[in-house]
Amino acid sequence: MGLTKFFIIPTTASVVIPASLISFNSNFSDELVLATYQSYINEEIAEEAYQEFSIKTIYFENDREVFNGFSSGAFDLAILSSSTLEEAVKKGLVKKIDWDKFQPLKDKLKNNGGAGTNGQKKNWGSVYSPVVEKFFSSPEISNYGVPYFLSYLAFAYSGEDLLKNGKERGDFSTSQQMSWSDLIAKIIADERFKTTDGFPKLGMVEDELTLFSLSKLSQKQETEKGQGPSETEKLFEPEKKQSESQFYKQFFQINESGINKGKLGPRPLFLSPDSAVLSEMLCKGELAGAFVYNGDALYAQTMIDDGDCEEEEETGDDEDEDLNDSQDTSDSSDSDSSDSSKPKRKIKIITGSPTLWFLDSIAISAQVSPEKENKIYEFLNKLSFEGLDKFSKLHAKREKILKDSDDEEDSDSEEENGEKEESDGSDSWLIRNFLEIQYTPALKDFSSCIKGETNGQ
To answer: Among 98-107, 370-379, 403-412, which range has the highest average pLDDT?
Structure first.
């Protein structure tokens, strides 16, 4: 949408390049190409995947670029949203998933003695969360995609509580919700989200799915009380077939909801196709709030906790003082000890009603050769299911780490005494990728493990 594109200097394993510029057929070489969203895979894992499986990671800004990549043979596998995957299936661009090739799942997926083939009669509830099961009611999703991560649309912000009645997710805990239209009304009435010195303080992920979803959710007459699940789902059916005029219409609907220069000032909204950019701006305080996905908010908080953000020096606003709980925001402290004593920014999230879940899955190009397909399944096994049977051990270990996280000496002494467990699964790609990306796991046991950690804090 006219925004500056951010390109990464390529390594051997990853490169940012528009799909339209790729015309080679990857079947001519042993190299495999994985196409995914920016900041959507652990970069160390991407490097290791290249070394072990010759899989190069290419980043796109819109997953619909994969249509050209698959049809030309440029991409061998890709991470797609559910709506894009369904469209790719209809275009004949993807292969059916052979679930029998995932050894950790073979016994779990058997349903009363009949495992079925390619998504038929599988016991999905033994492996995946209830949310994924709902997505799997569509055969295009269960037959053609391996679930990667779940996410839900949320509003992330810092400073004073936006709601005074507890209807928000403080520290990412589940709570009551309010309608999206009421939430937007709260946001536009809050001074901190209004344009300051010509720069917007409110952000949003710039992609078709987010724009479409928020424009629909912001319409008060469609999102208020008494709405059943089937009616909620109907709101998003048209997203599958969006014309260019319909796409731009979403901007006007968001504008009509109150997110406009009349309510928020000139340049009321900062848009970026890369959610990591928004996470960093939230982390630094450059944005006061943003419509992002839950993993983006968690990523911003992780950067803050790890000290990876240099916050804006101008902290004169009341909410910044409340947030930092500190009257001294000068640059008088350069030492680690002084920085560690300063309270850190806290990212809070609110989810409107209805909760809007998204599932991203990994799909395989229909043009992949049998030889490459075998290598792809080896990669998917390692990325998606390695350590599947070790979540209970991991949960026990991580709860202990959380309790001792403020006492580095205790942690060091444990390592010196050789108490580190070798087989808890924490070094698996599955765990490492989650810790980097922070979106909701699709696997049932993994999701339960994470929820247990949260409840135990």
So the answer is: 370-379
